[in-house]
């Protein structure tokens, strides 16, 4: 686990965010949301969070929230646990300095501070691809149902 954290930190230094972002999941915008997961998945997600936090204490260098979130994301994917990876920003009122933060949430389990949603403005959300695909399908089904119930149908004339 310590090696995974160091590899994640090195990757952040060497690889652009644009190239790393496909590995984080599907970019879903800025609206904060969390996937609903089973009790077993919640238990596993909490174990992952504890292991990643403990391992970060044993690295030879400081490991901040971003590498931790990347490693947790990889483990969530390995165990097929739906997740949302958040990036946020806040401004320190005293100094005026900006502070960035990354955290990952799955159901009631999280890696990062519980207060992250209150303390940081969400700038970007990445979700597990399978969950996002399911959500998109469900939204499309709901949209079709609404259109059908309201009598609004799309008609294709066949002219082309």
Structural features, described:
By secondary structure, the chain is of the alpha+beta class. It has one domain (2-16, 23-150). It is 49% helix and 19% strand. It has six helices and five strands. It has a five-stranded antiparallel beta sheet with strand order 1-5-2-3-4. A hairpin with a 6-residue loop joins strand 2 and strand 3. The longest helix is centred in the C-terminal third of the chain and has 22 residues, at 129-150. The protein is globular and about 60 Å long. The N and C termini lie far apart (57 Å).
Structural class: alpha+beta
The number of helices is 6
- How much helix is in the residues? 40-55%
Mean pLDDT level:
86
The main β sheet shows up as: 5 strands, antiparallel
Strand order of the largest sheet: 1-5-2-3-4
Order of helices and strands: HHEHHEEEHEH
Radius of gyration: 19 Å
**Tally of separate domains:** 1
From the structure above, extract its key features:
160 residues; alpha+beta; five-stranded antiparallel beta sheet; 6 helices; 49% helix; globular; disordered C terminus
